[in-house]
Amino acid sequence: MKELEITEQQSQSTTVLSVVGAVDSNTAPELQQALLRATETSTGGVELDLAKVSYLSSAGLRALLMAAKALQKRSERLKLINVPLPIKNVLNLTGFATFIDVSP
């Protein structure tokens, strides 16, 4: 089974993490670790590109929550970009879209 692929790109004010694969209970800790590392080392915003994410479980939602809380402490918001419609629907239904910026 293929694991999650996460690549990181730095711009002047933003760290962009691009994710490929399914975020489930096996791969969510890897995503959480990458997100938290980005929130600790970046002074600007953090964006998560979900264009190539096929699935996001409740464990994945927890990883997003942890990153959003870490960013909130410094008055930033986690930004999700290229969010597939099924994942966007989950984020809306669970209320995550109220404290995370979600772009289609």
Helix run count:
3
* CATH fold-type name: Transcription Regulator spoIIAA
Say how many strands there are.
Answer: 5
Q: CATH top level?
A: Alpha Beta
User: Can you list the strand order of the major beta sheet?
Assistant: 1-2-3-4-5
In N-to-C order, the SSE pattern is: EEHEHEHE
Please summarize the sheet with the most strands. Answer: 5 strands, mixed
CATH architect. name:
2-Layer Sandwich
Q: Please, what is the CATH homologous superfamily?
A: STAS domain
Overall pLDDT level: 93
Global structural class: alpha/beta
Number of domains: 1
* Fraction of helical residues: 25-40%
Shape: globular
Rg (CA only) = 12 Å
Strand content: 25-35%
For the termini, the CA-CA separation is 28 Å
Low-confidence stretches: none
Please explain how this structure is put together.
This protein has about 100 residues and is α/β, with parallel strands linked by helices. Helices cover about 40% and strands about 30% of the residues. It is built from three helices and five strands; from the N terminus they run ββαβαβαβ. The protein has helices at about 30-40, 60-70, 85-95; strands at about 5-10, 15-25, 45-55, 80, 100. A five-stranded mixed sheet has the order 1-2-3-4-5. The longest helix has 15 residues, at about 60-70.
